[in-house]
Amino acid sequence: MENLEIKKGLKEVGLTENETKVYTACLELGSSLASKIAERCAIYRTITYDILNSLIEKGLVSYFIKENRKYFHAISPDALTKYLEEKERIIKEQMETIKPLIEQLKKMKSPKKEAYSIEVFAGKEGFKTLLEDILKENKDYRMIGYEALGIHLIEYFFIHWQKRRIKQKIKRYIIAKEKRRSEIEKNKQLTDVKYLPDTHEIPTSVLIYGNKSILFLPLENDFVAVRIESQKIAESFNTYFDLLWKIAKK
Q1: What CATH code is carried by the domain that includes residue 184?
Q2: 53-88 pLDDT per residue, tens
Q3: Residues in Cβ contact with 17 at an 8 Å cutoff, skipping those fewer than 6 apart
Q4: DSSP label at residue 211
């Protein structure tokens, strides 16, 4: 058990498994030939020489020559402290070298592609899910067009939802066609609205909140919408909204 703990500790300070075997063998055997150490560790002699050279470089093993033969022995275990101190010194030097380069390396890194998601919602339940998400996001929203919503508003649910929107102080900004004025003017709490001439084409209704954009598809007898979660796309629709807002009238 004790030997296992010693070997584990040596690995934790940076010795490889074979270096640990050879170093502990050198401690136990005393001055020995490489062949004897290799036999003790069950490692090929040529590999043992490489490991011994690595331990010599780390300052943990030394050797002497007697009668033209090379004998290896472990230096006092106190050398492990010096080995770690040297490692620490080298790491500090490396840190000082790399610190000034970090910002330059960051600039070299290619920009991360924006993550995005696209989801399709259909039917009354899909419509409710989207409205609930707007409340959950709890941010002001902007809307271009009102046409695709007209026949899909579930009266009771939508009236209740509007009350919750107002309670959460979520403001809405709407650009609609003139023909929707009377419908929208019924409830203008926390609403800023401008109108475009009925002749102005709005391909589809778009609602933008946070980094999400909802495209309401103009289908006659069903509700279908596509929600895109993307900061860039939301910014593009907001730019389009700003352009229309400038030409629309109160």
Answers
A1: 3.30.870.10
A2: 888 888 888 888 888 888 998 887 777 777 777 777
A3: 11
A4: T
